[in-house]
Amino acid sequence: MDLTFLAFFAPFIAAAFAPVLVRLLGHNAAWVLALVPALIFVHFAGFLPQVAEGGRVTGGVQWIPSFNVNFSWLIDGLSLTFALLISGIGTLIVLYAGGYMKGHPQQGRFLCFILMFMAAMQGLVLSDSFFMFFVFWELTSITSFLLIGFNHNAERSRRAAMQALVVTGGGGLILLAGLIFLWNMTGVSEFSLLLGTGDLVRESPFYLAALILVLGGAFTKSAQFPLHFWLPNAMEAPTPVSAYLHSATMVKAGVYLLMRLNPVLGDTIAWETILPLFGGATLLVGTFLAVRQTDLKLMLAYTTVASLGLLVMLTGFGTEKAIEGAVLYLVAHSLFKGALFMVAGNVDHEAGTRDVTKLGGLLAAMPITFGAAILSAFSMAGLPPFVGFLAKEEIYYGIAASDPWSVFITTVAIVGNALMLVIGFAVAVKPFLGPKVETPKSAHEAPLLMYAGPVLLAALSLAAALWSGLFHQFISSPMASAVAGAPLEITISIIPKPGIALTLSIVTIAIGAILYFGLARLRAAMAASLEAIGWGPDQGFDQFMRGLVRLSVVLTRTLQNGRMEFYMTATFVLLALWLFRTMFVAGEWPAVPAFPVLSIYEWVTVSIIAIGLIAVVRAKNRLTAIVSLGIQGFAVAILFMLMGAPDLSFTQFMVETLTVVILALAMTRLRLSPQDHRSAGQTVLDGTIAIACGVALTFILLQILQTPFDRTLTEFFNLYSYSLAQGRNIVNVILVDFRGVDTFGEIGVVMVAGLAILALLRIVPKRSLGSAPAPRVPAPEPVAVGKE
Amino acid sequence: METAVAVLTGLYFAVSIYLMLSRHIIRILLGTVTLSTGANLTIFAMGRITREVPPIIPSGLYLPAEGAANALPQALVLTAIVIAFSLFAFLLVLVMRSYQELGTDDTYAMRDAEPEGEPLPPLGY
After folding, report:
1. What InterPro entries is this protein classified in (chain B) (predicted)?
2. Which residues in chain B have their CB less than 8 angstroms from residue A550's CB?
3. Whole-model pTM?
């Protein structure tokens, strides 16, 4: 079996065994479970040389061949980088969760969810088929829901989980529509084939519709303003989830999609306007909101929102250097943000709080964690010698120009980057340096399982910059080439080159440094201005959800109002309309039939039936109704006799007699009002519906009677009734021989009806139970039929 | 003859639908009884109607007489009559029991499953 195929499912299999392993090994199960993502990492790392040379690996198995839907994967620079980030950081996160959740009663369940998420995310980035992509996309939303709501006893968790599911899951449905558009426009349902159809898609009249739908999916998943609010709320999840899903991997799925489709949808005015606008707005909103926070995780969460905005902005900017900057920043962000979240988790875990104003002087107690934190903060701030520096230089090379649009975007980027620098240092420096502050728990260094992750990621931030040649060769250049759809080579290194980019970097750092020392005042100003606005999309979500519930209640109560008459009216109105519509559309009205020629006794029988029926409707009391019902029934029996059907006639006689007798017996036991209480208006309405249905059905029957009749079956039964079945009464032969199984079924129906009747009659009425409430009706007294 | 039966079935359907549109369960029950008779007559008429000669093979012969009635719709209707009767018997007992339990024969008043003025479902999370 292909190992790549196995890699798709290995985390699912590991997830299934996670609870058992935790029960057996305790928190050390993480060491065993981490082997799975580690092996996947090694497997995918094996593709690096091939992909670095510009190769593209596709493979797969047939899934639904009749619809040309395959389980196919695509490994190029873009998906390989993502796969390595997912499995690599995933390994560290599983280990980290082993330490962080140590002793938690649901640790097994937690590891199970994390591994399921890993499988979904990995499937998402490796999928070649749209449908696989969509399935994995929604699977990440669902697993994210489970992880955010992990602490399901808290209402805040439940709300955050629901919010994430509604926003990202809803976005996934919009995306599906977009993918189906692309499928219809190009006729291909696989990314590897779609990439060659860019011109076709861009010239299609449906381009804008497809673009907006795809963006609907990408922007919800990657938390773009104004749908950014779910991401900070998702911080209700345990810290390993925040580090993994909500910074390093899942929220980048939207960016992944934009990067993947850049060669197809990009290079148009719409693409290069919408993306930078939304991305830039998200960058600014994210950083400003981050400044206001004092919770370490929330500060980081808002900078994640900002970073996603920056990535979207760069992806849509349209220059090669901007794409290179986006690629470098994406990798850098995954490394430093994952590390910083784990640092925040360590501080929270060891000191008992993650409120930055209540922390300080932890350096002595937690030196290793501090080391990882400060290295990551340097990378986040874009300082040399870290990969964040490379990214920032490349970004400024990509967007700096003298036209107004570039100046505008560059300004946005400088402000955003400066504020991110502020937050980075506020998270990495403030808790560790300065005077020692009393914390709820007496802090000491986190265990190996918990510092291994941040230290390794911080070291990678450094290594990727120091050995930038290798990093570019194997990771960033192939990825940028895949995003651009043309070979690109990234050359940036840590040796600063004088130029516009370096100048802008220095400006950013200077602004950041000034703001850092005014952070407390900045925070107060932000809080005050947010309070002045008062309303945000987060409250809007609550209003939306409440509105949704109210709307569904109104709809349900209108359509299912519990009134049988309403249902019946709707049914029959539709029946009449549909029958007339069919005849009208097909133009098949029956011809006017000749006036029937009947003998006198036939006329009498038909008239009795008609009179009996009308009497049933008009009966003023139940006795009249029952008698009239009997009259029409017996008249029908006579009619059957006249039409050469003695068997029917006998049966009808018998059944009608029983019906009348049973009905009369039952009615005397019940005080049912036979009176019709309909108002005049209601009578007219119901009468109109009834007559319309009656006329329509008569027309249909007349139409049928006017078409030629096929007697094949009748001839068959006539011919073989005696010669094969040895019976002279053909009706009986059909019933017991030719269609004997039908008759058997009929007997079954009668038997089941009998059993149901027996069961209904034997249920003890509620009121006869000792403690039951007082009867709502007086016990029925036998009323003689004659007294009616 | 077929035209007369066709008009008659129209009357059957109109009457039964009018009865079923009532709010009172006993009239709905009467409506279902007449509806099934109307349906039976429709099936019967669709197999074309002949007069008086039943589909029976006289002794000594192998085929029924010329102009004998169509046996197939008769077999179908025979089954339908019996099943309609089972349905009627079940519905009647259901009507009786629901009247005893709920104390009303008005479908508007039967609201145990969908009570009126139900509170809103929870609006929180």
Report:
1. CPA3_antiporter_subunitC (IPR050601), NUOK/Mnh_C1-like (IPR039428)
2. 120
3. 0.77
